[in-house]
Amino acid sequence: MKQRILLGALIALLSGAGASFAGERTVTLAVENMYCAACPLIVKESIAAVPGVSKVEVSYKAKTAVVTFDDVRTNLDSIAAASAKAGYPARPAN
């Protein structure tokens, strides 16, 4: 009986191990083609529509987007592609 309990606990521990490596990431993207006051809203909406993105802050003045996302559900390439598809190519800021 103890062996079954220990085995069950071990299986439960190992099955949740993948989730412990996942996490929320925040990146700053340099965004091109923002020339008017409406541009940041379009960038924000396009990036926010990507599943896994939880927060987007866009600065017209700095031409950047700070994006917080779940790296299990999405990745930087998908986020940049969403911005580019809206007409605003984005890349990681230096």
Give the helix/strand class.
Answer: alpha+beta
**Helicity, as a percent range:** 40-55%
Which sheet architecture does the biggest sheet show? 4 strands, antiparallel
Q: What strand order characterises the main sheet?
A: 2-3-1-4
Estimated share of beta-strand residues: 25-35%
Question: Number of helical runs?
Answer: 4
Helix/strand order, N-terminal first = HHEHEEHE
Shape: elongated
Radius of gyration using CA atoms only: 19 Å
Mean pLDDT: 87
Q: Based on DSSP secondary structure assignment, what is the total number of beta strands?
A: 4
Tell me what the structure shows.
Helices cover 41% and strands 27% of the residues. The chain has 94 residues and is α+β, with helices and mostly antiparallel strands. A 4-stranded antiparallel beta sheet has the order 2-3-1-4. Helix 3 (39-48) packs across helix 4.
Question: Any descriptors?
Answer:
alpha+beta; 4-stranded antiparallel beta sheet; 4 helices; 4 strands
Q: SSE layout and pairings?
A:
Blueprint: H1 2-15, H2 17-21, E1 24-31, H3 39-48, E2 53-59, E3 64-70, H4 76-85, E4 90-92
Antiparallel strand pairs: 1-3, 1-4, 2-3
Helix pairs in contact: 3-4
